[in-house]
Fold 3-hydroxyacyl-CoA dehydrogenase family protein.
Amino acid sequence: MSIRTVGVIGAGTIGRGVAQSFAQAKFEVILVDISQEQLDSALAQIRRDVLVHAMLLGQQAQESAETVLSRIRTSTEYAPLADADFVVENVTENWDIKRAVYEQIDAICRPGVIFGVNTSAVPITRVASVTKRPAEILGLHFMNPVPMMSAVEVVSGHFTSEETLDITRGVLKDLGKEGIVVQDSPGFITNRVLMVTINEAIFCVHEQIASAEDVDKMFRECFGHKMGPLETGDLIGLDTILNSLTVLYESFRDSKFRPAPLLQKMVDARLLGRKSGQGFYTY
């Protein structure tokens, strides 16, 4: 199957990064979001990111940005996805919202079109069960910042076919990324481990064991991490952390996934990290 046009659902931080990555790899992109304002903001951010990247590499910056953007068309409707050869969904970690999206796009997209579920915790087999194409459903866990990451967590659900995995590995290779295949389980590998780590770091701050700065410094200086867990939480978005922990807790019924009270309080206060300008740090 030739993949030339990719549908990207959701124009938030991850969605726009996915759209940018595909457009820079010379795919045609259909970027869909319910908000035109969000779409406009995504295009503006992509333009800035491409310009910065181009200037760092000494390229013709303006031309590069406009060329990339020319490959992205936007819509507040799902109908244009009828032209897509491959779809990546990036909506919020809420099962009711995701289910409604898949029920709609399953009726619009051609048979055989692969749906990549960009999720950190929702089971892929559950998503597949609400479509008429379960063999073409798999997880594609892109991480932020998408254009800079060299690997993607690829999740094989109960019904996912080997052909779907092979095609997806090829698509990711075209993006300059390696697909690392794991089996379907809530949180998969990355988030099952990462969310507990971030949550425990938040508990340490909540219990006044250490400041956010010192917690992160320990991880950077002692373990060689590029970012500490709280810096990582701010980058991902604390609302996304909370949603992921909630899904993990509901899936496993294990208290180790219980969100820290401070995390819930910060999300309630809309202190979400980088995207809101304030989280554990000020941006």
